């Protein structure tokens, strides 16, 4: 689904990413690499292979859209250098692409340890008047594309909430890309310009 976000055409993808065609820019938020390993290290018996699936899904998007840049909107890692070798292998496979990271709250804790030199880390990234960053903006002065809250929405009769893109006034908030992340329920209110639910094969507005 394509929307016009304050003059910038963006495609909302069912893979929980954004494609900015005119910039050849692929955008994802909240990958949280290493979260499963972090839980395991703290005694919670869960599968540690979620990051393999997530990196495979990202690689599939790269092969489909052939971006010049991939922008991570924060929380690329969850905590510490738990899966850094797998991630560096992924980066080596895609050397022609420029990888950018707008630092998130989890990256603040571990970026000095785990971020390789192959990624440019920034506070934010701009395309025209649009700001790309991790946290939603509290200001009404600049439209912002961001992550952080992992938005989901409850659909009547469905057993669980579904991930969604959430356009709330000046913020377009992406769902979390990582498969092992929680979500914050979106409540429709007077400041909502759009809720776009991630389906299996397409994104649709409610």
Task: Briefly say what this structure is.
The protein has helices spanning 35-41, 50-65, 84-93, 105-114; strands at residues 2-5, 8-13, 17-20, 25-28, 69-72, 98-102, 119-122, 125-127, 130-132, 144-146, 151-153, 162-168, 171-173, 184-185, 192-198, 203-205. It is α/β, with parallel strands linked by helices. The strands form 2 sheets. Strands 8, 9, 10, 11, 12, 13, 14, 15 and 16 form a 9-stranded mixed beta sheet that branches. It has a 7-stranded mixed beta sheet with strand order 1-2-3-4-5-6-7, with helices on one face.
Account of the protein in words:
The protein has one domain (2-205): Purple Acid Phosphatase, chain A, domain 2, CATH 3.60.21. The strands form two sheets. Strands 8, 9, 10, 11, 12, 13, 14, 15 and 16 form a nine-stranded mixed β-sheet that branches. It is globular, with a radius of gyration of 16 Å. It contains four helices and 16 strands. With 206 residues, it is α/β, with parallel strands linked by helices. The longest helix is centred in the N-terminal third of the chain and has 16 residues, at 50-65.
């Amino acid at each position: 689904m394509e929307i016009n976000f304050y003059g910038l055409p963006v495609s909302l993808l069912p893979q929980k990413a954004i494609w900015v065609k005119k910039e050849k820019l692929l955008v994802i938020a909240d990958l949280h690499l290493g979260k499963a390993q972090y839980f395991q290290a703290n005694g919670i018996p869960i599968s540690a292979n979620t990051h393999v699936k997530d990196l495979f899904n990202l690689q599939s998007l790269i092969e489909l859209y052939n971006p010049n840049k991939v922008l991570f909107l924060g929380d690329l890692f969850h905590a510490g250098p738990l899966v850094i070798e797998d991630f560096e292998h992924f980066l080596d496979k895609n050397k022609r692409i420029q990888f950018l990271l707008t630092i998130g709250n989890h990256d603040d804790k571990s970026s000095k340890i785990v971020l390789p030199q192959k990624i440019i880390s920034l506070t934010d990234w701009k395309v025209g008047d649009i700001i790309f960053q991790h946290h939603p903006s509290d200001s009404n002065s600049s439209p912002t594309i961001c992550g952080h809250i992992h938005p989901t929405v409850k659909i009547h009769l469905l057993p669980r909430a579904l991930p969604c893109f959430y356009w709330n006034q000046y913020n377009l908030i992406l769902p979390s890309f990582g498969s092992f992340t929680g979500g914050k329920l979106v409540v429709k209110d007077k400041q909502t310009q759009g809720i776009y639910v991630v389906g299996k094969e397409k994104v649709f507005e409610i």
